[in-house]
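Need residues for this backbone.
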């Protein structure tokens, strides 16, 4: 690989990392708003099917990006992005916490009460999300590379979906369980939110498979990679 190609690969890696971290941090900040996506009017365990947090919307993007990085840049680079996401999330939490300590002026469009309503649970939310995130992302990367080795780089759809399905269940179970444990949401919502969140993520994982194929194809064409070959820009 030429120096020009290595620099291009590094820039793309940094861009993917920026998208990953932005999606992760935003999902932690907006989680308190829930919405009802209603293709089917079905109720499960006292909750509407697909009655879910808006925080779930950007979160699947992180799994698509780590799968793409795993495929093109390798396991080590994917793990580095995950660790960077953890630090970014805790740093954003520190900023939110510090902002909550500063008293609002009498004319501030957002007063203390409104700010605390929107961001007041962010500390617990980020902790819950980080616990889930640590489990889910590392599980996703491990399973992805297990299937990649087993299939010798073939059947991209299989490792993309199998790794994401399992890791997303781990993520949903952990974060919903911790939010219930911290009394942010009631326990009677646990099973309904667990199933709704997991099924929604499974659907998204299935839908993002074509985008993963497109991304991998573009990378292989741009950098002249063979099947199962990874970029090393160092």
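Answer:
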């Amino acid at each position: 690989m030429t120096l020009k190609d290595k620099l291009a690969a590094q820039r793309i890696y940094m861009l993917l990392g920026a998208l990953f971290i932005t999606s992760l941090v935003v999902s932690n900040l907006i989680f308190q708003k829930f919405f009802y996506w209603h293709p089917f009017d079905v109720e499960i365990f006292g909750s509407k099917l697909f009655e879910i947090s808006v925080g779930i919307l950007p979160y699947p993007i992180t799994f698509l990006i780590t799968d793409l990085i795993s495929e093109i840049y390798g396991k080590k680079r994917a793990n580095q992005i995950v660790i960077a996401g953890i630090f970014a999330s805790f740093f954003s939490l520190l900023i939110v916490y510090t902002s909550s300590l500063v008293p609002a002026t009498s004319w501030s469009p957002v007063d203390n009460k409104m700010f605390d309503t929107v961001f007041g649970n962010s500390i617990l939310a980020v902790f819950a999300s980080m616990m889930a995130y640590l489990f889910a992302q590392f599980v996703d990367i491990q399973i992805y590379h297990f299937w990649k080795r087993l299939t010798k780089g073939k059947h991209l759809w299989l490792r993309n979906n199998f790794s994401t399905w399992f890791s997303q269940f781990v993520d949903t179970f952990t974060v919903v369980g911790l939010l219930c444990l911290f009394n942010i949401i009631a326990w009677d919502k646990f099973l309904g939110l667990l199933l709704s969140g997991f099924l929604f993520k499974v659907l998204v994982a299935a839908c993002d498979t074509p985008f993963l194929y497109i991304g991998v194809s573009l990378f292989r064409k741009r950098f002249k990679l063979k099947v199962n070959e990874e970029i090393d820009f160092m």
